[in-house]
Amino acid sequence: MPQMERFRSLLVLEDGLVFEGRSFGHAGEAIGEIVFNTSMTGYQEILTDPSYKGQIVVMTYPEIGNYGVNTEDVESSHPFVEGFVVRHYNPVPSNFRAREELGSYLKKNKILAIEGIDTRKLTRHLRDYGSKMGIISTKELNTKKLLREVRLAPKMVGRDLVKEVTCKRPYRWTKGVWSLSPRLRGGEGGIHVIAYDFGIKQNILRNLVDAGCHVTVVPASTPAEEVLKKRPDGVFLSNGPGDPEPVTYAVKTIRSLLGKVPLFGICLGHQLLGLALGGKTYKLKFGHHGGNQPVMDLTTRKVEITAQNHGFAVDTDSLKGKAELTHINLNDKTVEGMRLTDLPVFSVQYHPEASPGPHDAHYLFERFINLMKENRI
Fold first, then answer.
1. How far apart are CA 232 and CA 189, in angstroms?
2. Residue 334: C-alpha distances to residues 62, 71, 156, 239, 346 (Å)
3. In the Cβ-directed half-sphere of 302, how many Cα atoms lie within 13 Å?
4. What is the pTM of this model?
5. Contact between 330 and 297 (Cβ < 8 Å)
6. What is the 3-state secondary structure of 195-255?
7. 253 and 331 in contact (C-beta within 8 Å)?
8. Side-chain half-sphere of 372: how many Cα atoms within 13 Å?
9. Fewer CB within 10 Å: C terminus or N terminus of the chain?
10. Could you give the residue numbers annotated as active site?
């Protein structure tokens, strides 16, 4: 495959830390909140996850690009990250499924990427001092100018990024989980799920189809009344980017759905449910991004290794008397799951559908199916 031209590139953090490297994607400038992801594989899933809207992702694994890019391992129509940072970029993929190399894919989708920097130092800095706003540039190499620009950029707190990633109109989803060995799929069973798109990952939809659901996806602003008119067996609240508190229309909708239909929320959907119940959310120091987060199921005391991608969390104390805590993160004791004891409603902060990722939490889709069957009118 042809070698791409590399340009000198700078990464400047809002606190003045500067890294110099080489670009291997689009040329120009990109601003976002810098977060690190600890996954060893799955960069294509990460790039196309709408939950990363507004963020520049740093991969802690040092070798990126070695298996290229294919047409199946995507979570949306295009990449949503603002920028991509790696230690070493490999422009020569070795994978029978690869259709192009990562650099050309990023350039085609106008995503800035930088390689050749000390990602270990950057990760330690973010871990010690928290996520920072940052800017990647190939055109302006004056660090003082870049520093002024990044300090003026809007931060993650208080921004409604859901409206920038949600679908424009409802649609049906019928594809199951991809497999090397084609097999019969679900998706045309008697269970109808309406999924709110707050930035939904396609593998969530694939798992719902494989569980036997036929799925309708609706925009984030869809009123509860419109959804209830379709008489779904259940409503799914999806993942999504940024701060849940500004997404007030979704909180209002969820309140209107409580008690009317079974609900299952993941990630941002979990946080929005917490707000709808009267709880509070807060920003984490550097978030949870990766495929190795240990979570305990408080009901069974079993520990699941989970994939996660979020920068906000539900306040534990704010849930008291409003929801039962079902899962906790063993690293920092943050809320990872909750349920209502008097209504068919539950949610988790982590991603049971992650692909690639651990499979420990796949049972949650079956739990949702059983909940819908038990509560059919």
1. 13
2. 28, 35, 20, 17, 16
3. 7
4. 0.95
5. no
6. EEECCCCHHHHHHHHHCCEEEEEEECCCCHHHHHHCCCCEEEECCCCCCCCCCHHHHHHHH
7. no
8. 25
9. C
10. 267, 351, 353
